[in-house]
Amino acid sequence: MATSQQWSSKLGFLYATAGSAIGLGAIWKFPYIAGTSGGGAFFVLFLAFTLLIGVPLLIGEYVLGRHSGRDAISTYNMLAPRSVWSVTGWLGVVTCFLILSFYSVVGGWSLIYLGSSLFGQLGGLDVGGYQAKFTGLIANPYLAVGAQALFLGLTAAVVQKGVQKGIERASKWMIPALFVLLVLLSIYSLTLDGAKEGLAFLFKPNWESLSSEVVLFALGQSFFALSIGVSVMVTFSSYASKKQDLPVSAATLGVMNIFVAMLAGIVIFPGVFTFGLEPSEGPTLIFAAVPAIFSQMPFGDIVVVLFFMLFFFAALSTAFSLLEIVVAAFMRGDGDKRAKGSWLIALFVLLMGIPSALSFGVIGDVHLFGMPFFDLVDFLASNILMPIGSLLICIFLLVKVKRQTLAAEFQMGSVLGKKAFTLWYTIMTGIVPVAIAVVLIDQFFGFNLFALLFS
């Protein structure tokens, strides 16, 4: 059954997809992954993967979703009935579920810090004090799980209202506000003593640090930041009108995502080097760095409140899309199931996410495959399942959807013509699947081809 939901306008579609992509993937995850992956070399790879692989794949998901007008699972069943290709949709739904299970933990952290900043509890400490404060907060099992539950409850409350009254309405004002604040904060960070070192770390490649793991992380980050490989954009574009310019929308989103990631890096890394933090701090980097940075500036207590308010909104905007994909698969076009599905699935996500929430406290010493539970779920979803999902989507487009159908959907409502479609189709045929396959094979079999190329 085709969906009866639809975005109210072209701009509404862009805001909603931007809310999905430009959330914590750019603001929280990009700085810490760049920090643990050597900085400049990672950024160059992230930039290349986003433009050459991420945006073409994003167009592919847009085309699939709008053509089918259905949720992630139903899309593959409609275009390839009674075949194994439905596993692609199921893989996307499962991956969204897993991502939300650890992502909601970070959303809970954002709530904790927003509350702390509102009550003036994030001032007057040195860098070590901020690190100790954050470590103590997230180690409290009741606080960590409680904040996660509240975050998921807020997410479900919006998603149950549908795409126009819920997701689109919330995204329309959160995304512009996020851009404005990031620009202002990045300008301030450039005045810090460690600005030169921070910018060099982020933008000057050190190819000696390159490894197959760094390449995989860059590929995974480009997918995570654009919400591709999990059919999020298949579902979101199923709500798009036939007048929507899909290629231009995808390119715009790709550029916006790169820009926000750069701004987040510019906000964080000058402060990291100014206050003697380690770039490789990991998932907690932003919570230790931001209060330290802005406690030194005029009206810093107000700015910290604004930052964590928008940080929280950014977390919500991506959580909306992750929950929406699972809910849409649950509803299968039956809008009467939306409210029930939103709350029921949020409860299951909470149960799945509790071990991730406790990974920094009571089960911090428990490791699986050498990683805490939080890191393991993140690695599995972002660096394994998303690239595999992207590869399957790419192959599906090429072998199960006629080229004429792709061309018609690509050009419908678009200012771009046949030449642009031919270029996109060539990239999808000759570059994208090969690049993803090489990165995955290199990671699984440990060839480290990329390090050899740049050595």
From TrEMBL:
The chain crosses the membrane at residues 12-34, 40-64, 84-114, 134-159, 171-190, 210-236, 248-273, 302-331, 343-364, 384-401, 422-445. SUPFAM superfamilies: SNF-like (SSF161070). It is a multi-pass membrane protein. GO terms for molecular function: symporter activity. Keywords: Membrane, Symport, Transmembrane, Transmembrane helix, Transport. One of its GO terms (cellular component) is membrane. Its main location: membrane. It is found in: Membrane. InterPro entries: Na/ntran_symport (IPR000175), SNS_sf (IPR037272), YocR/YhdH-like (IPR047218). It holds the Pfam family SNF. NCBIfam families: Na_transp. Belongs to the sodium:neurotransmitter symporter (SNF) (TC 2.A.22) family. This is Transporter. It comes from Shouchella clausii (strain KSM-K16) (Alkalihalobacillus clausii).
